[in-house]
Amino acid sequence: MSEDLVDRVAVTLDLEGVRDKAGLMDRVATALDLPDWFGRNWDALLDSLSDTGVWPPAAVERGLLLVVRNWQPFAELNGQEWRIAREVFSEAVDRTSFLDVVLALGGTSEP
């Protein structure tokens, strides 16, 4: 299966330094420029990722590519929360054909 993601509006969700769920939610709100009423919980995240009305305007027509970077330390520190986050990302992608979420690899090697 091959999908052309070139035209998608790419938004980077950089989790570097994020230590807990609250930090993850803050980082998502900032990366996606979510409205002040974003509830900062898993249901609100799923709703926001699935609702093109809160996406960046260009993404509504072109689609949204959410690139999650530096997620490994968060995942190691917060295994259960990371499993839930992945489930939320997956369900949002299943709900919304114009959304793709990718987990960027790299950045974990020590010099």
Structural class, by secondary structure, is alpha/beta
Number of strands: 3
Rg result: 14 Å
Helix share of residues? 40-55%
Strand percentage: 15-25%
Shape: globular
Q: What is the distance, rounded to the nearest whole angstrom, between the alpha carbons of the first and last residues?
A: 36 Å
Parts with pLDDT < 50 across at least 5 consecutive residues: none
Mean pLDDT: 91
Main pleated sheet: 3 strands, parallel
Number of helices: 5
Order of helical and strand elements: EHHHEHHE
What order do the strands of the largest sheet run in, or round the barrel if closed? 1-2-3
Characterise this structure.
The protein is of the alpha/beta class and 111 residues long. The protein has five helices and three strands. It has a three-stranded parallel sheet with strand order 1-2-3. Helix 2 (42-50) packs parallel to helix 5 (79-95). 21% of the residues are buried. The mean pLDDT is 91.
Secondary-structure topology with pairs:
Elements: E1 9-14, H1 21-31, H2 42-50, H3 57-62, E2 64-69, H4 72-77, H5 79-95, E3 99-103
Parallel strand pairs: 1-2, 2-3
Helix pairs in contact: 2-5
Labels describing this entry:
three-stranded parallel beta sheet; globular; 15% strand; 111 residues; 5 helices; alpha/beta; 3 strands
Short description:
This protein has five helices and three strands; from the N terminus they run βαααβααβ. By secondary structure, the protein is α/β, with parallel strands linked by helices.
